[in-house]
Structures are given as structure tokens and as C-alpha cells.
Specification:
The complex is a heterodimer. Chain A is α+β, with helices and mostly antiparallel strands. Helices cover 39% and strands 25% of the residues of chain A. Chain A is built from two helices and twelve strands, in the order ααββββββββββββ. In chain A, a hairpin with a 7-residue loop joins strand 1 (123-132) and strand 2 (140-143). The longest helix of chain A has 76 residues, at 39-114. Chain A is elongated. The termini of chain A are far apart. Chain B has one domain. In chain B, helix 1 packs across helix 3 (61-74), helix 2 packs parallel to helix 4 (81-95) and helix 4 runs antiparallel to helix 6 (105-131). Chain B is globular and about 50 Å long. Classes of the chains: A alpha+beta, B mainly alpha.
């Protein structure tokens, strides 16, 4: 009788020790459910962001102040050199401005001659980055504008330097934007003056790499990388970076903006037709 | 007299979970101060390991699972991804608790380093299964190194907290 009781106790103890296995299995089930696009899992995620965001915002306030302070100190020390650089840039831009005005007038005249139908106008809004989800596995942000503010899936995120991310998930008041440097990011691009077709693939580093669509394609350092508009996720002609390293058939791209050290983003809707793709890309 | 005491008790008992949650939120703050590309560090693993060994009653497997779900919910990884790693770490540490509890600090640090390495490998493998991409070893190593280096600091703070919890309960 005693040995039976002892055995029962041992089995019970063993069960409690192995109890976490049940949670491991449950976690795996959750992974599978999310991967199969289960809407409940997605809704829970969205709900959690809405619920936890005020806490994260509150916790992050001192960090924001610290960042601002450091930025201010940096800016003061760089004022003189920055002023000289801006004067030079201003002169250079003024030369371009006169050329742009000339070309614009010429273009308007030609459009009138050809009965040109202009493309749809873009719509844009500015949002604040409230969460930075950088990790070894992901590179995305949560921004403070969602469905209620007019954000739609597929909008592109810009900084003053250029495009760097795309809206992949929209909640009522928040959206998730995935950076071009994320592992899951794939952007059809043209490289250089010859418009070499390639796919810009993020690998969570600041410099994504190019995968060429055709063999024996060559690009060189300094070639500009712009969106090609294939598949319809991105409009064509958006300059996103330059090739800064070519080694053994692999080309790395220096992005004009990699999403680092940003507080605000401009979300732009190019009103593109829905792409024939599923999931994130 | 009873009310403040019970409030202190509740606070102390929920402190490991709240600390874990705070560390998860802390990961989401856009810092912009690091010299390198932004990286988040799962310091919450230190908390999970510590309490799995020294006081699994206050941070049990259910709470660890909940921490994982919160972490998954606010990041863009699939639901269950971080949860699996956290529960795995807790499970192994708790399974060998009787051996680990008698170890000296340096030995325990080594065990944490090995266990966290295994957890990281599992995450990388899981990520590969999900996306077909192997994570860059550089990022992976920086994350691993930082968490392991900070373990003694967490251990010291959690030690104080655990003593307080034992006093109160």
C-alpha cells in the first residue's frame, strides 16, 4: 500500500516536472496558426499592441528626452560645419531649380500636345514611431497612425532621405511598417543606367543585397538602385540607394534611409492596384 | 496594519512577472543611442532562468508562457515564437533545478550561457522553418553575448528581490 502511494506520488511529481511540455506544444501550435494566417492570432496581436502601447510610450518617455538631449548637443557642436555645407548645397540646388523650372514648363507644353492623362495623385500623412521592433529576427516599427487616420496596407514610409519601409499591418490607430532591411523584405528594383533587373533582399543588416533576375548581369559601385514597379507593390522610379560594394557576384546596397534614428515617418499612398501576392510580400 | 503588508506581499510576488514585462517593453523602445544598428536583447531570459532555478513558484511556467505571449504580441514575429524559447529555457532549468540550485555562481553562469545558446539556436532554427532564412550570425552573436554579459548584474538584482520575496512570503 505504501509503495503504491509512493509510486503515485512519484508519477505526480514527474507529471508536474513535464507539465511545461504542454506549454511548449501550445506555443508550437500558436506558431503554426499564425503561419497559416489565422485571423484570431492576428487579432490578438493587434489588440495587444493597442493595449500595451500606452505603457511602452510611458516607459519610453525618458529615453526620448535623453535622445533629444544627445541630439541637441551633437547639433550645437556641428553648427558651423553644417552651415558651410548647407550654403554649398543651397547654391547647387538653386542651379537645379532653374533647370527644373525650365523642364517643367517644357513638360507641361508637351503634355498639352499629347492629351496626356496624369497619374492618380498621392496621399500622405505623418506619423510618429512609437515602437521599434528591431531584433535578430525582425526589423519593423509601430507608427501612431492607423485605419482611423487613413492608413491602408501597402502605403510606403518615407523619411526626408527617401523610402525605407512599407505598411504591412493596419490597426485602428496604429500600423506596423516593415523596413527594407527586414529578412522578409523583397523589393523588385532596377540598378544603374542600364536598368538591370534585380530583387533587393533584406537580411537585417543596414546594407541589403541584390539578387539578379538574369545571369551574367553586372553592376558597379555607385550605381543607383530604384524601384522597378514589377508586381505592383512599389511604384516604379523611387530611388532607394546606391550600390556600395560588389564582391564575387554579390552586390550590397547602401540605402539612402535605413530607418535608423527616426522619430517620424511620412506614409504615402500611391493608390497602386492590389498586387497578386499573398502574405507580407 | 494588515493591508499594507498584504499589498507589499502582492507586489513582491508579482515583481518577477512585472520585471519580465518591463524588460520586454524596454526592448521595444526606439533608443537610437547605440553605435550599431538597433538590436533588442532578451534580458527577460535572465529573469526566467533565475526564477526557474531559485524560486519557480513566483514565476511559474504559466507566467513564463504569458510573458512569451506578450512579447510575441507586440513584436512582428509569429505568435508563439518567443514563447517557445522562454518556456524551453524555463523547462530545462526547472528540470535540473536540484543540481543547479547547489552550484556556485560561476558554474551557474556557464549553465545559463549554454542554455541560452540552445534557446538562441532553437529560435534561429524556428525562424528558418518559418521563413527559410538563416539569421545573420553577427546579430545573433551580439544578442547572445550581451545577454550573457549582463547575467551577473541581473543575478545580483534578482538575488536581492528573491530574498525580499522569501522574507515577505
Amino acid at each position: 500500500m505504501e509503495s503504491k502511494l509512493f509510486r503515485l506520488k512519484r508519477i505526480k511529481a514527474q507529471f508536474w516536472r513535464l507539465f511545461p511540455v504542454l506549454f511548449l506544444i501550445l506555443a508550437l501550435i500558436f506558431v503554426v496558426l499564425t503561419m497559416t494566417g489565422n485571423s484570431v492570432a492576428l487579432r490578438i496581436k493587434q489588440g495587444a499592441i493597442v493595449f500595451f502601447n500606452p505603457i511602452v510610450s510611458f516607459v519610453s518617455k525618458p529615453v526620448y528626452w535623453l535622445n533629444e538631449g544627445v541630439d541637441n548637443i551633437k547639433n550645437w557642436s556641428l553648427t558651423y560645419s553644417e552651415n558651410v555645407r548647407l550654403k554649398e548645397e543651397n547654391e547647387y540646388l538653386l542651379r537645379w531649380r532653374s533647370l527644373a523650372l525650365e523642364l517643367s514648363a517644357e513638360q507641361e507644353e508637351l503634355k498639352g500636345l499629347l492629351n496626356y492623362v496624369p497619374p492618380k495623385k498621392t496621399r500622405h500623412l505623418v506619423a510618429e514611431i512609437v515602437m521599434d521592433e528591431g531584433s535578430a529576427f525582425t526589423r519593423s516599427f509601430i507608427v501612431s497612425a492607423g485605419e482611423n487616420q487613413g492608413v491602408v496596407k501597402g502605403m510606403l514610409a518615407f523619411s526626408s532621405k527617401g523610402m525605407f519601409a512599407r505598411v504591412v499591418d493596419v490597426m485602428p490607430d496604429y500600423s506596423r511598417v516593415m523596413a527594407l532591411t527586414d529578412y522578409m523584405s523583397r523589393v523588385p528594383v532596377w540598378v544603374g543606367e542600364n536598368k538591370v533587373s534585380a530583387i533587393l533582399i533584406g537580411d537585417n543588416t543596414t546594407r541589403p543585397y541584390l539578387q539578379f533576375l538574369y545571369e551574367n548581369e553586372t553592376v558597379s559601385v555607385g550605381d543607383v538602385v530604384m524601384t522597378s514597379g514589377y508586381i505592383g507593390v512599389y511604384p516604379s522610379g523611387l530611388m532607394i540607394g546606391v550600390v556600395d560594394d560588389v564582391q564575387g557576384g554579390e552586390a550590397r546596397v547602401h540605402l539612402f534611409e535605413n530607418g535608423e534614428k527616426l522619430f517620424f515617418v511620412r506614409l504615402v499612398d500611391f493608390s497602386l492596384a492590389k498586387p497578386l501576392l499573398k502574405g507580407n510580400e | 496594519m494588515t493591508a499594507p503588508y498584504s499589498l507589499e506581499k502582492i507586489l513582491c510576488l508579482s515583481a518577477p512577472f512585472l520585471l519580465g514585462m518591463l524588460l520586454i517593453f524596454f526592448n521595444q523602445i526606439p533608443f537610437h543611442l547605440m553605435p550599431y544598428y538597433h538590436q533588442s536583447f532578451p534580458f527577460v531570459c535572465c529573469v526566467i532562468f533565475y526564477f526557474a532555478v531559485f524560486n519557480p513558484k513566483v514565476l511559474n511556467v504559466f507566467l513564463v508562457f504569458l510573458l512569451g505571449l506578450i512579447s510575441d504580441a507586440i513584436t512582428s514575429v509569429p505568435f508563439g515564437f518567443n514563447t517557445f524559447g522562454y518556456v524551453f529555457l524555463f523547462f530545462i532549468a526547472n528540470l535540473f533545478q536540484s543540481y543547479l540550485i547547489n552550484m556556485v555562481f560561476c558554474q551557474l553562469w556557464c549553465v545559463f550561457a549554454i542554455l541560452f545558446f540552445c534557446t538562441d539556436i532553437i529560435w534561429a532554427f524556428l525562424f528558418f522553418l518559418i521563413s527559410g532564412i538563416w539569421v545573420s550570425t553577427g546579430f545573433w552573436f551580439v544578442q547572445y553575448l550581451f545577454v550573457c554579459l549582463f547575467y551577473p548584474l541581473f543575478c545580483y538584482v534578482l538575488g536581492i528581490l528573491n530574498r525580499r520575496i522569501q522574507e515577505v512570503s
